[in-house]
Amino acid sequence: MHFQSNICIVGNGAVGKAAALGFAQAGLSVTLLAPRAVPAEPAQSASWDVRVYALNQIAHDLLSSLKVWQALDAARVAAVDSMVVRGDGEQAGNLAFDAFGARAGALAWIVEDSNLNHALDTALKFAPNMRIVTGRAARLCAATEGATVQLDNGDVIEASLVVGADGAQSWVRGQCDIGIDYRSYGQRAIVTNFECTRPHHATAYQWFTSTEGIVALLPLPGQRASLVWSAPEALAQTLLREPLSQLAERVAQLSGHQLGQLHPVQPESVKAFPLSLLRPHAIVAPRVALIGDAAHVVHPLAGHGMNLGFADAAALVKLVAEREQHRDCGDERILARYSRARKEDIFLMQAATDGLERLFAVDFEPLRVARNLGLNLVNKLPVLKRALISHAMGKKP
Asked: Does residue 249 fall inside a structural domain?
């Protein structure tokens, strides 16, 4: 088979799907190359997906413009009205944010992976100018007049622009010989869900510890919370071996029983994801643009990996849609604009998350005192707090 379109998107994740919808709704023809044809199923009321995202205002606005936000199961989406960050030790620092102080309706929204992808898959079925091809890419060739992606079954996709939305181990990035800087954090993100005996009041909590990693409890609808524990590898192995009831007790004690007693949500489920920092040396190549984890991987302590990806998609779609009439979608000027547009945002988020992880990973008493004092100081400076939370939300202070 031979397919032709303006855009070829390689990857089947939420960021790639959102970009595909954006391009299609902008009047461009799109071929989405997906590794499998199994659509995301809507979450069942008896179970809660352990993979969740804290989506910010940029993600909300993009998904709303694509009519995807309105298609989410709203009963399974939790707005975050406030956030509390705490340090470690006896004199733990404290930093608190709230939506009122940020002049926003919510700081973020907690959305399950299955809920998000089901809404995206449903929207793709009705998108104009959209073709979904299932297969495995084997070769990418870029030329002056366009790019071709050859599949392992011999099928060929021709496009003006190829978008790599295929994750941290990006095949597209590898085909373009784009080098990377990589560093493992020696941690795993342990994720699961709990029932709580105390209400969370739409508050997200995060505890920084030097020996046990970073623990976050994110609000879910009802008296439920989602755990994201960035644990050192040895501890992560222990946590995965233990019964979930024991993990619940560990988290309750570490959090000072902030949400009371914790009980695993039934049916029990826990997953673990290795954590790393990944910086590609470029996010564009001739006829190619990278978005999402293909373009950057950051520590999840701020919960903004998915938000960066949606910001990539929004920027790329906008720049391509608003290009000059004499330029095609993969014109080098358009790609250069995209690279410039995303450079600062990606750099700041990588620097902030990596710097905080390094700062709180050191078990040294004078440094512990200093960072706790720093949290308390920032908490007393409303202008700085507002600037920090506005940047995290994707808004101007």
From this structure: yes
User: What is the tally of structural domains in the chain?
Assistant: 2
Judgement on whether residues 207 and 269 belong to the same structural domain of the protein: yes
**91 and 150 co-located in one domain:** no
| Domain span holding position 310 | 2-38+115-181+276-356
Compute the radius of gyration of the chain from its Cα atoms: 21
Cα–Cα–Cα angle for 104, 25, 118, rounded to 5 degrees: 70
The pLDDT assigned to 88 comes to: 79
The pLDDT mean for the chain works out to: 91
* Residues 145, 20 share a domain: yes
Q: Is residue 28 in some structural domain? A: yes
The CATH number for 322's domain is 3.50.50.60
Q: Helix or strand or coil: residue 269?
A: coil
What length does the chain have? 397
Q: How many CB atoms lie within 10 A of CB 232?
A: 16
Spatial distance between the Cα atoms of 51 and 37, rounded to a whole number of angstroms: 21
Tokens of 197: 């005996």
CB atoms within 10 A of CB 153: 9
DSSP letters for 139-156: EEEEETTEEEEEETTS-E
pTM above 0.90, yes or no: yes
Higher pLDDT, 40 or 241: 241
Examine residue 44 and state whether it is found in any structural domain, yes or no. Answer: no
d(CA 314, CA 22): 8
pLDDT tens-digit map of 276-332: 999 999 999 999 999 999 999 999 987 789 999 999 999 999 999 999 999 999 999
